[in-house]
Design goal:
5-stranded mixed beta sheet, 0% helix, single chain, globular, mainly beta
Length: 309
C-alpha cells in the first residue's frame, strides 16, 4: 500500500485533476431524496454515505432536529432502484447507543453482510466516538453486532468517517476535533487510517487541515473518495467558528505526494446559510455516478439531495 499523501497549502490545481472528474454537486439540478424533519434552521436530513450494491443504490443518513428538540435523533438506512425514490430498511436511534446525538454514518458491503459505522456524541461533552454494527442483511443492521471502532480520547473527539474497502484493504478518513482548547472544539482535521478487517485500525497521520485566511481556515473534513489516480477527495470546510454546521464543499487532489486544495472546484447552496456538505459519491456497475449531499433550502432547513455526477 502506497503512503497516503500529506496536505499542503498550495492552491489551484486545475492541471492535476483526474480526467473523469464528476460535475460539482448542484442544488439547481438536484432532487430531494429526504426532506428535513421540520421547517426552519436546525432541522436537517443529510450527512449521507452512499454505495451501489446488489442492484440497489443504498444510503445511510442522519436525521437531526434543533438542539432543544433532540439534535441527531437517528440514523436511517434506505435503498432505491432508481437512486431517487428510497424505501427505509433499518433505523438506529441515538438512545440505543447512549449517545446525546448521532452524526454522519458510513456503510460498507461485506462478503456476507453489511457494516454500519455510527458517529456518537458523548452526553454532556464535546467528545465523539464511532461504533460499528455488523449484520447479515441491511434490515438487520439496527440489531447488528456492535463494537467501538474509533473511541477518541480526552484530547480528541472523532466522527464522520469515510471508509473504503477493497478486499482485505480497508482505508478510512476520520474527522478529528481537538478537545484541549475549551470553546474551540469545532475545529476539525482529517486523519488517514488503515485496517485489515475494518475494526482494528492503524493511524497513518493527519492528511487534511484548514488553511489560515482561506475559506477552509477553521477545518477540513473529507467526505468522499472521488478518484484513485491521482487521489482525489471532496471535503467540507468553513472559514470560522460562526460557520459551524454551514460548511461548503471543496476538492483536494494529490500532487507530488501531497493533498492540495483545488480552488477552482467549489460547491455551495444558493439558499439560506449556504451549506452544501457531506457530499457522498456512489457508482453503479455501468459507470453511472450519483452525488448524495446535505444542502440548505430557503427556510434554513437542510434537505438530503441527489444529483447525477
Amino acid at each position: 500500500m502506497r503512503d497516503q499523501p500529506r496536505m499542503t497549502s498550495t492552491p489551484d490545481l486545475p492541471n492535476h485533476r483526474p480526467d473523469d472528474l464528476p460535475r460539482r454537486p448542484d442544488v439547481a439540478r438536484a432532487e430531494v431524496v429526504v426532506p428535513a424533519p421540520g421547517a426552519g434552521p436546525g432541522n436537517w436530513s443529510g450527512a449521507p454515505c452512499a454505495v451501489h450494491a446488489d442492484g440497489w443504490w443504498v444510503i445511510a443518513y442522519r436525521v437531526r432536529r434543533p438542539v432543544l428538540d433532540g439534535r441527531g435523533v437517528g440514523v436511517v438506512v434506505a435503498r432505491s432502484r432508481d437512486g431517487v425514490t428510497f424505501e427505509t430498511v433499518a433505523t438506529a436511534a441515538r438512545d440505543e447507543f447512549g449517545a446525546e446525538s448521532l452524526e454522519r454514518p458510513a456503510l460498507v458491503r461485506l462478503e456476507d453482510g453489511w457494516r454500519l459505522y455510527v458517529s456518537c456524541a458523548t452526553p454532556n461533552s464535546k467528545h465523539w466516538w464511532v461504533e460499528s454494527l455488523t449484520a447479515p442483511t441491511l434490515a438487520d443492521l439496527a440489531d447488528g453486532q456492535r463494537q467501538i471502532v474509533f473511541p477518541g480520547d480526552d484530547t480528541v473527539g472523532v466522527k464522520d468517517p469515510v471508509i473504503v474497502r477493497d478486499g482485505d484493504r480497508w482505508r478510512a478518513w476520520l474527522c478529528c476535533h481537538p478537545l484541549t482548547d475549551a470553546g474551540h472544539e469545532d475545529r476539525m482535521t482529517t486523519r488517514y487510517l488503515t485496517s485489515d478487517d475494518g475494526l482494528a485500525w492503524t493511524d497513518q497521520g493527519e492528511v487534511l487541515a484548514g488553511r489560515p485566511g482561506r475559506w477552509d481556515a477553521r477545518g477540513a473534513r473529507v467526505t468522499a473518495l472521488v478518484a484513485e489516480e491521482p487521489l482525489t477527495l471532496t471535503y467540507d470546510g468553513r472559514p470560522d467558528a460562526q460557520s459551524n454546521w454551514y460548511e461548503t464543499t471543496g476538492l483536494a487532489v494529490e500532487h507530488d505526494g501531497a493533498l492540495q486544495p483545488d480552488e477552482g472546484w467549489r460547491a455551495h447552496s444558493p439558499h439560506s446559510d449556504g451549506a452544501l456538505r457531506y457530499a457522498a459519491l456512489a457508482t453503479a456497475p455501468n459507470g453511472t455516478r450519483r452525488w448524495y449531499f446535505e444542502a440548505a433550502r430557503p427556510d434554513g432547513a437542510h434537505d438530503l439531495f441527489t444529483a447525477p455526477a
